[in-house]
Amino acid sequence: MDVFELVDNGIPADEARPIVIAWTWVYLDIREELTQRIKTATALGGDPSRLKELRRELGQLDRCAHRACTQSPPGFSAHAALRLVQEALLYLPLELQGDTHRLAALLADRARLDQARAERARAALQTERDDHRD
C-alpha cells in the first residue's frame, strides 16, 4: 500500500499519507503474529483457516489486490481495511495493539467520510429523480 495508490483512488494526499505510514508501521508485525498463531494452532491440532484467510486478505490489502479494492469502481476500501484490522486486533498482543488501534482510527475516519459522501450522492440522485417526476 502506498500513497500514490490511495491518491489514485480519490483519497487526498494529506489523508492518504498518515494511513500509509500507520499501515507500514504495523502490517509486517501483524503478519508475523498471525503466522506464529497459525503455526501454534496447527501444532496443537487446531483449525487455523480463519487466521490464514485473515493473513491472506491483509496481504491483498497491502498489495491493493483485495476484492474490495478491485471491484467496480475500483478503489481503496477504508471500510474493508477497517474490518480486517479490527479482526486482526483480536489476535494481537498488547505491544502491537496501540499502533494497530491508531491505524484503525485513521481507517474509521476515512470510512466515515466515504460513507457520508456516498449518502450525499444518493440523496442528490433521489432529489434529481423526484424533480423529474414532477
Can you walk me through this structure?
With 134 residues, the chain is mostly helical. Helices cover 80% and strands 0% of the residues. The chain is built from 6 helices and no strands. It has helices at residues 3-8, 13-43, 49-62, 67-70, 78-89, 94-133. Helix 2 packs antiparallel against helix 3, helix 2 (13-43) crosses helix 6 (94-133) and helix 5 (78-89) runs antiparallel to helix 6. The protein is elongated, with a radius of gyration of 18 Å. It starts with a helix and ends with a helix.
Topology:
Elements: H1 3-8, H2 13-43, H3 49-62, H4 67-70, H5 78-89, H6 94-133
Helix pairs in contact: 2-3, 2-6, 3-5, 5-6
Concise synopsis of the structure shown:
By secondary structure, this protein is mostly helical. It has helices at residues 3-8, 13-43, 49-62, 67-70, 78-89, 94-133. It is 80% helix and 0% strand.
Number of strands: 0
Helix tally equals: 6
Helix content estimate: over 70%
Percent strand equals: under 5%
Overall form: elongated
What is the N-to-C order of secondary-structure elements (H for helix, E for strand)? Answer: HHHHHH
In this structure, how is the largest beta sheet organized? Answer: none
Mean pLDDT: 86
- What value does the Rg take, in angstroms? 18 Å
- What structural category characterises the helix and strand content? mainly alpha
- N-to-C span: 47 Å
Q: Which consecutive residue ranges, at least 5 long each, have pLDDT under 50?
A: none
